Structure formats: C-alpha cells, structure tokens
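User: Please go through the entry that follows and flag anything odd:
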Amino acid sequence: MKAVKSIGLFFAMGLGCIVIGCLIGCILSKKQNESLIQKERDRVEVKNRISDQAFEETLEENNSDLEKKDWASSFVDVSNDYPFLSKDTQLILEEVDIRKGTVVESDEILPEKYVGMNRESFLQSMRDYEATPPLSERQKGFVGLEVLSFSRDRVVVQKNYRRAGPEDGFFLALMDYRVIVLFDDAKTIYMTTDISYEMLPEEMREKLSTMFYVENEQELFDFLEAYTS
C-alpha cells in the first residue's frame, strides 16, 4: 500500500513540474513576443522619424530654391500679344508742324493691313513706314512719327513735319551718296530721299556736289518725281 502511495506521489510531483514548466514557458514566450513587438514598433517609429526628417529637409530645399528663383525671368510678357487691333479700332492722327508749332488732329479709319496686329507688330510697321515714307509724305515734309497710345479701342500716332511754304526755295545736296533736301538756310534738313548717287546722270551729280538750288516746292516735287522709282 505504501508503494502505491509513493508511486502516486511521484506522478503527482512530476505532473506539477510539467505544469509549472508550461506556465514558465508561456510567460517567457509572452515576454519574448512583447519584446519583439516593441522592437518592431521602435523600428517603425525610427523609420518614420527619418522619413519625416528627409521630407522636411526636401521641403526646406524646395522653398529655398523658390526664394532664390528669379520669377521675373520666368513669366512670359504677354503685353505684346494682347490686345489686337480690329476693324473697329479708332485711329487718331496728330500732324505736327515743327516749324510753326501747330498740331492738326484727325480721326481716321484704321487701314485693313493693320487689323489683327498686336502692339509689337504695329510698332514695327510704324518703324518701317518712318524709314521709307511714301513720296506723298516726303513732299509734305515728313520727318518722323511716334506712337503715343495703343489699345484695342484707340491708337494715337503723331506724325512730325517740317513744312515749307509754296514759295520757299530749297537746296538739294548729297549725303551718304543719297539726295537730301535742305531749307533755304542750306543747313536744316527738310527731307531725305531714296535717290542714290548712282541713279543720277553725270550733270546732276556735278550740280549736287556743290548743292543745287530749286526755286520753290513745285520744282522740288518735279525733281523728286523724275528720279524716284
């Protein structure tokens, strides 16, 4: 009977050790898992901090680049592209007589060739006109022009003239191998022409070399018409 009790006690003690061992194993396993979970959390947190820091540094660099950037050179100036002239645009011409100091203003219909032009195109067209004015303008004493105002609704152009009276005389001379017209003081330029030295006969070249005088405006116009192509 004692032998049976001893065996039972032995088995009971063994079973108790096994249970205790299992409990200890579970506790250790739980702590190990918690440690692994905490390490993973720490790793993710560190990674996020690094990412946030990198993002902030990148943002600061971008902001710095934006501050240093010359925005004035980045924008496209569209003032030359708008507005455009239309057939309804009002053209105001101011004809200024330089000698008398008078101004005559007129309201004109915009020529069709200017319709659709922007500011830069119109200015270039006016520069071309000033460089090679038609004979009718040269006969009126045209010396230059200026665009005073430009918008879709209204364009103001000032034309400058150095006019002479019908009985005033003129001197014709050569300058840079082209014929020029001087007032009767032989100093003040009345107009320049496109008549080149090569276009003239030998006799006229000799006259112009020492200045050639014409009695009045009509004789001047006759000369210009004769040698202007």
In short: The mean pLDDT is 75.
